[in-house]
Amino acid sequence: MKFTKMHGAGNDYLYIDVRDHDDWSTDWPRLSQIMSDRHFGVGADGIILIEDSGIADLKMRMFNTDGSEGEMCGNGIRCFAKYAIDRGIASPASHGLEVETLAGVRTVVPIYDGDRIVSARVAMGEPLLDPDDIPVSLDQQSGYPKGPVTGYPLAVDGMDLSLAFVSMGNPHAVTFLEQPVGEFPLHTIGPKVEHHSMFPNRVNFETVNVTGPGKLTARVWERGSGETLACGTGACAIAVAARLLGLADGKVDITLPGGTLTVDWDGEGEVYLEGPAEEVFSGEWLG
What we know:
With 287 residues, the chain is an alpha+beta fold. It is 15% helix and 41% strand.
């Protein structure tokens, strides 16, 4: 089985073209667990499959390191587009490459340096802010409306968090901190937030510092993968939450451990994500 390792700001995935192998009876969740292992496998944040689509140019499926299937991946879809265009699998129209995901069809516009794709801009869809849509189960006595929830208190291990909830096709809980995000005990608190009973589908958890006008610094605990060097949907959720809280306006640069992603949201309509897309190497899995 041939694969290609790619990353967007350090958020790395193994890409497998399965378009001509509809008869494969592969256990993709289990394969993602095995191949993603950084000691006994190739090492990645998961695997991404390239499939045919009846409603878009191509279809993307992604599986996390724990085998769970994710609805959408902002860093993964940029690399997906680069993979497909570089290999002539698909040619983008003037408006970009349309990719089917579990969160809907997303449009990716490649950005070139000469004749090489180095990054991409993705129309990530509109954020969902109603708790039922995220989904998050709030205390019925809390009096929170059906619209945006941006200051929900949650105590975890004696730590008081103030959470904003956003779905970018997958669920996110965002907290803005005074302490540097590098000092936050993400590996302790992250899994407890991810698996908290208020999130029926689990949740991605973002910790954020405001570092200047239009500048944010963040760390992300990804549902199903743990801490990753970057998260595209997480960056979008952060930008939406920051605007709703009056901490940012319009375009923001979000610095994550693996690099910087740029998100643009005018307060309504689609969120736009821009960031790098890099190919690392290709190989053949013999397991």
